[in-house]
Design goal:
Ubiquitin-like (UB roll); alpha+beta; three-stranded antiparallel β-sheet
C-alpha cells in the first residue's frame, strides 16, 4: 500500500468517484458520496465509515459513477484507485493521454492493468498520425 501522504484535492482531482453502500442499495436505500482522489489512507477509511456508512453490518461498497479518462469498474478497490490517482498526479498531460489511449485500444479496464501501463508509459511505442498530412485520396493512390 502506498504510504506517502497526499492531500485531498478539491479543485483538480485526478479521479472522482461516487461510492455507494451496496448493502443499503440492495435494501432500497441510496447511501453514498463523492470522493476526490488522491487522498490519504485514513481519509478514505473515514469517508467509507462516515459518508458511505460502512460498518460490521454493511461491509460492501460499489462505484456507481466516476469522472476519469479511464473506465472504472463498479467493484474496483478504492485503495487501488487511490494508487492510480497518485500515479496520474505524477504524469504529464501527454503521458496521461497516451496511457488512456493505450488502455482504450487494448481494452484494459481493471485498475491494476492501468497502473501497470502508467508505470511503463516511457516504454510504450507511440506514433501520432495526422490525417491532414496524408494528402487527398487521389494523391495517395
Amino acid at each position: 500500500m502506498c504510504e506517502q501522504t497526499f492531500t485531498q484535492q478539491q479543485t483538480n482531482p485526478q479521479l472522482k468517484v461516487y461510492v455507494a453502500n451496496l448493502s443499503k442499495y440492495v435494501e432500497g436505500e441510496i447511501v453514498g458520496a463523492w470522493i476526490n482522489l488522491p487522498t490519504t489512507h485514513n481519509q478514505i477509511k473515514t469517508f467509507l465509515k462516515n459518508q458511505v456508512g460502512l460498518n460490521r453490518q454493511y461491509e460492501e461498497y460499489a462505484i456507481h459513477d466516476f469522472e476519469s479518462d479511464f473506465r472504472i469498474g463498479e467493484y474496483e478497490n478504492i485503495y487501488d484507485l487511490n494508487i492510480l490517482a497518485v500515479k496520474l498526479e505524477q504524469m504529464s498531460e501527454p503521458e496521461k493521454n497516451l496511457a488512456s489511449a493505450y488502455c482504450n485500444a487494448n481494452s484494459l479496464k481493471d485498475t491494476n492493468s492501468i497502473i501497470n501501463i502508467c508505470e511503463q508509459i516511457n516504454d510504450l511505442l507511440y506514433v501520432e498520425l495526422d490525417a491532414n498530412t496524408w494528402g487527398s485520396r487521389e494523391e495517395i493512390l
